[in-house]
Write a structure and sequence with these properties.
702 residues; alpha+beta; Penicillin-binding protein 2a (Domain 2); Beta-Lactamase; Beta-lactamase; 7-stranded mixed β-sheet; 28 strands; elongated; disordered N terminus; transmembrane; transmembrane helix; membrane; peptidoglycan synthesis
Length: 702
Amino acid sequence: MRRSKGKRRDRPVTPVDPAKSAKRRRFRVHVVYSLVFLSFTSLLLRLGYVQVVKGASFRSSEQLTQYARVPILPQRGWIYDANGQVLAWDKPVLTIQFNRYTSMSTAEMHRVASILAPVLQTTPQALYQAMQSNPGALQVTLAQNVTDAQVAYVVEHQSELPNIQVVQDYARQYPYGDLAGQVLGYVGAITAQNVSQYKGYLYSQQVGETGIEYEYEHLLQGKPGYELVTITSNGTAVGSVGEIAPQNGDNIQLTLDGHEQAVAQELLQNMIDSSQTNKQDITDAAAVMLNVKTGGVIAMVSYPYLDPNWYTNGTYVDHVHYLETSGAQLNNVIDTFNYPGSTVKPANMIAALKAGVVTPKTEILDDGYIYIGTQRKNEDEGFVFGWVNPIEAITVSSDVFFYELGLHLGKWFGSSTTSGGSYPASDGSYQNYLDTDFVKGINAMFQEEENFGLGTLTGIDLPFEEHGEFYIEDYRKGNIQVPYNLQASEASLAKTGKYVNYGSPASLADAAIGQSQMFTPMELGVYAMTLADEGLRLKPHLLENVYAPNGTPNSGAKPILTYKTQVLGRVSAEPWQWDLVKQGMYGVTSNPAGTAYYAFLGAPYQAAGKTGTAQIVINGHRTDNSVFICYAPLNHPLVAVAVMAPGGGYGASFSAILARKMIDAYFDEHHEPWMPKSQWTNTSIPSNWMQSPAYLLPEQSH
């Protein structure tokens, strides 16, 4: 038979002997059993060796080895200004801390202090005092920026140093000191009083106490991590088992312009220092600039100034006298309120125009004073303006015109240089007049002012904001001013048609010129912004963007959150009414008879403003609260400004000048075409800020 190429030829099949096959299978099974037996025997012998020969050693090692969970603190988010300049940042440091998780006797504390003091290069007594300091805190920092040798000693002698631990920490730093100090705020330790507020935090974490640090704690504060370290019985760290990395805080960017802020603080400081007649009276002052289009805060100045570093670098005690006596811890833009003076006149003019008690053709004779009942109300400084129309009344700030405006809103007629006037006979009793027409009149002004954001919280994203108050004179108490509850009066009028009160018609006149209400500078800033936007009231804010921990305004990263402009309300008025008020406010800065004419003389842009001067008492003597509001440019507003300086004198002689210089600086920085190119500046915070008079604080604070 021929073979086929490429194929194997079949072979014959050989029969298999069943007996031999079974024998071979039994042999293989015996081999497998033998191997298994030998393996178990070896394992048992090894186990016996471990139990008998090495058991004691291993049991001792197991009992003496411990694991320590060392916290790794997150880096707090950085704070940037509108131009990407760092205003607050975290510097990594290692610290040695004393914790109060468990109690420790005085004797034990002295013992620990005596062991640790030489390592930290201090005395046992000083260290003991440090351990006793800040009794409300659950952790006390004993040393910062510690060396590797100091860290090693604490770790290796942990059994001798109960309640002492090494923590990777961060030192909060504010590179420009007092620049926007009250706005930024500062951080501090978690205390026994606020620990419930910070669930899930490590006791060693620093938390925001004031300002932006407090307001945006939930963004700035990351989440801690841990490192698991093996510790032997003698306290020696023999290695890290692993770690859970911390999650750093988000970075935030503010609307605050660091350059404009620096210029404004320096301008205010220089004006106070150069004021010979008012310097001793000006114990506090405030200024705010807002973006008319968005409500963003461009600058927020609160005098006296404060350096947040004092609270984080251990130098607080060196400045405690200054802080406790100056009031620098307050943000006067949002925390303090005072009489606004004539700055309220534009809002009250809107109220009167809407009520029909004033028309564009109204003219009132200003002879310098009128009588209201038996009270004589004088024009400021004895001015006599003659016949005044609504536009002129705002421009020259005629008090008599606005006295009449307020009285007519409250239906008190006939006041003049010879008569005190009276209420309508149809009201019956004087008390019924107060409870009806008087209330309706004063509410017409107060409610319109509140519509503009006055006397109410603005909602600014800062903690501890205060709101202003409304007042009336109480005839039962000798015509002294008492708080007036606008909301309660409105509710009562709506329900019963009256609101029982014991006011005086003179309060109508006082309210019309800003002497029966107190507002914060922030409220006045929102008011100015609302005038600029013809009734659109925006919520003021400082937050602009939020970035992930690895993103910054300068890295090209996309924000994870951007603030959206919020509308809080609208003041309804006719276009011609807005135009009338606008003309009056423009006259303030452009008409030679305007109260702020000289402050804005030569300005290359047009501005609308209103001065305010209110009589107050400081240090036991009478002086003036200097107030000014404005917006610019006139027809396409970009910024609104409010300044308040108790003791500063006339609104035109202090606050208006400061506002003008602040606006100039902002337009110079943004290279507006109407500003001379020779004056254009950049957005950088001045490199010589540390030599600025505004940084070299009073009382030798630095």
